[in-house]
Design a protein that fits this description.
Elements: H1 25-37, H2 49-80, H3 83-92, H4 99-125, H5 130-150, H6 152-167, E1 177-181, H7 188-195, E2 213-219, E3 222-228, H8 242-253, E4 257-262, H9 272-286, E5 290-294, H10 302-315, E6 321-323, H11 332-345
Parallel strand pairs: 1-3, 1-4, 4-5, 5-6
Antiparallel strand pairs: 2-3
Helix pairs in contact: 1-2, 1-5, 2-4, 2-5, 3-6, 3-8, 4-5, 4-6
The structure holds guanosine-5'-triphosphate and magnesium ion (MG).
């Protein structure tokens, strides 16, 4: 699902956390006005000093926009070429907004600043005196700011996407990815903390995890990436909130293996059936990738555990099922073994 768009060079890791926010219209305006007040140092020998001075100012304005707006937009574009990041970013902006389109349009508009720079530089350098050069410089600034002002809304929108991207994990698409999924409170974060380098927060409150957290596991000399995901409720995707959707996006775009965690406790807040329903949905989504781990075995009777295992096997015939306690670190070797088997079959993406 949505994998066709991985357009990365081999071995290249794109870290969206490095993408910087775009300056807002007001920030750009402030910087541009500052350029007008900055001293410009020129060597004594230079002729047509005033013209060179305004030409240098033009260049400062232009470079500022190139480096802080255009270059960042191009980075965003690169990140958005990866379906995982594109879907996460789209999940953060209002529904119906085509982000790739918005960024593309912005790039086109911002390039006008470059065109205007070339035009005004030539005009400044051929102006007859200082007042004319100054007048042209002011005109350039006015036109640049008017272009940017009209882009304010789009800049804000892209910044919402950038804020989201900066929180997204930096995935190496040449290495395998395992995702831990399940309803809230089944113990996903506790498990990821127990078996990987990541130490996500766990707590007895649903939706403790709101962001995708990346950890690493060394498995037979291969670095496996493991994702702690927010919980997902048993409901259709269109009814899910944005936090649940992040989990769904990771499951459909980057996970090669899904560890579906089940809480066997009799008093599980969301009930047992909801877990079976979600498991069914997960199998429909990505049947061949699912390993089921029944967690919290320390908490339930043998009898309860056997019943839960039986119910799981009925819903998921032929699927690997392991019994673990993330908290007490029981059965983790079996789980890692199951992952090892899976990953030797699954090919990493990219
Ligand atoms: N007894 C027992 N409790 C566990 C086990 N694993 C997790 N818990 C507890 O279950 C609660 C939820 O754990 P989390 O790891 O935060 O669960 P989660 O699935 O990440 O929850 P969300 O982030 O809300 O989706 C915490 O109070 C954990 O201590 C386990 O193996 N045994
Ligand atoms: Mg969690």
């Amino acid at each position: 699902m949505g994998r066709g768009s991985l357009r990365m060079e081999k071995g290249e890791v794109i870290c969206p956390e490095r993408v910087r926010r775009l300056p807002t219209y007001l920030e750009i305006r402030e910087r541009v006005l500052e350029v007008g007040r900055e001293p410009i140092a020129l060597s004594k020998s230079i002729s047509k000093k005033a013209l060179v001075k305004y030409s240098a100012r033009l260049e400062r304005v232009f470079r500022y926009v190139e480096e802080n707006v255009l270059a960042r937009l191009q980075e965003v574009n690169k990140v958005l070429s990866i379906s995982f990041y594109r879907e996460l970013a789209s999940n953060a902006v209002p529904e119906g907004v085509d982000l790739v389109n918005v960024v593309g349009r912005l790039v086109g508009k911002v390039k006008v600043v470059r065109k205007l720079y070339r035009e005004y530089k030539a005009r400044v350098m051929s102006s007859i005196d200082r007042p004319e050069a100054e007048e042209l410089y002011r005109e350039y600034v006015g036109r640049v700011l008017s272009v940017i002002r009209r882009l304010s809304k789009d800049i804000e929108l892209v910044n919402v996407a950038i804020d989201e991207l900066r929180k997204a994990p930096c995935i190496d698409f040449a290495k395998p990815v395992v995702a831990v999924a399940g309803l809230p409170q089944v113990g996903k974060s506790t498990l990821v903390a127990a078996i990987s380098t990541a130490k996500p927060r766990s707590s007895p409150f649903p939706f403790t995890t709101k962001e995708i957290v990346l950890g690493h596991i060394e498995l037979d000399g291969t670095t496996v990436q493991i994702l702690d995901l927010p919980g997902i409720l048993d409901r259709p995707p269109e009814e899910m909130n944005r936090v649940e959707r992040k989990a769904l996006i990771a499951l459909t775009t980057v996970a090669q293996v899904i560890v579906f965690l089940v809480d066997p406790s009799e008093d599980f807040y969301y009930g047992f059936d909801s877990q079976l329903n979600l498991l069914k949905a997960m199998l429909n989504l990505a049947g061949s990738k699912v390993v089921v781990a029944i967690n919290k075995v320390d908490k339930v009777s043998e009898e309860r555990l056997a019943n839960v295992a039986k119910a799981v096997e009925e819903v998921a015939p032929g699927v690997t099922v392991v019994k673990i306690s993330a908290l007490k670190r029981l059965g983790l070797a079996e789980l890692l073994n199951a992952l090892r088997n899976f990953l030797s079959e699954a090919k990493p993406q990219g």
